Amino acid sequence: MAETPAIHVLNGPNLNLLGVREPHIYGRETLADIEARCVAVADGAKVTFRQTNHEGVLIDWIQEARENADALILNPAAYGHTSVALHDALKTLTIPVIELHLSNPAAREAFRHHSYVSSAATGVIAGFGAHGYELAVQAALHRIRERG
Ligand code: DQA
């Protein structure tokens, strides 16, 4: 681990529309608001915060995190329910991986109940809205410090 820990926060498809997308489910905060929350609780750790609508780009970024990050926070959005490729990419990591959802997929439609990410993650945070990102950064820092 470098002296300043690096936390990568990756966001999947449609999360660029946060704030206007089904706000009764996902809230009114934008992704930029959420990024600011993450930086505010990061306690000096370097936060790399990204969003893409493309599965392959997410895979590239996960592989990048393998080299450059001390922890990964991933909101895979719908790809969590569909992507074996995402699962396989995550399985190559040895750093802590936190799966994150704003909503609680287990309490929603049946097609959201399965996640290909959960079985490759250290832990899952779901259902706490934007605050979940802060919880995830805190959990990542805790894990990083625990591992020394
Ligand atoms: C989500 C939940 C997913 O089921 C959904 O496809 C999303 C967002 C969430 O953050 O609650 O796009 O990951």
The residue ranges in which pLDDT falls below 50 over 5 or more consecutive positions are none
Q: Give the name of the CATH superfamily.
A: Dehydroquinase, class II
CATH class term: Alpha Beta
Main β-sheet: number of strands, strand sense, barrel status? 5 strands, parallel
Strand order in space, largest sheet: 2-1-3-4-5
Shape: globular
In total, the number of domains comes to 1
Q: State the CATH topology.
A: Rossmann fold
Kindly estimate the percentage of residues that lie in beta strands according to DSSP: 15-25%
The radius of gyration over CA amounts to 14 Å
State the share of residues found in helices, binned by percent: 25-40%
Number of strands: 5
| Helix vs. strand class | alpha/beta
Query: Gap between N and C termini, in Å?
Result: 8 Å
Number of helices: 5
SSE pattern: EHHEHEHEEH
Kindly report the average pLDDT value.
97
What molecules are bound to this protein? 1,3,4-trihydroxy-5-OXO-cyclohexanecarboxylic acid
Mind telling me which CATH architecture this is? 3-Layer(aba) Sandwich
